Amino acid sequence: MILRLKDIHISFTNAHNETFDLLRGVNLDVEKGKITALIGGNGTGKTTLFNIISGFEKNYKGKIEFEGHEVNFKRMPAYKISMEGIGRLFQDGQLMSGLTLMENMKLASNDTTGEIPFVSLLFPNRYKQAELKKEAQAREILTRIFGENNKYLSLLNQDASAFSYGEQRLLSLARMLMGGDRLLLLDEPTSGVHPQYINTIAQIIREMKEREGLTVLLIEHNMHFVREVADTCAYLDEGVIAEVGPTNVVLGNQKVRNSYLGL
Ligand SMILES: Nc1ncnc2c1ncn2[C@@H]1O[C@H](COP(=O)(O)OP(=O)(O)OP(=O)(O)O)[C@@H](O)[C@H]1O
Ligand SMILES: [Mg+2]
Question: Is the pTM of this model over 0.85?
Answer without folding.
Answer: yes
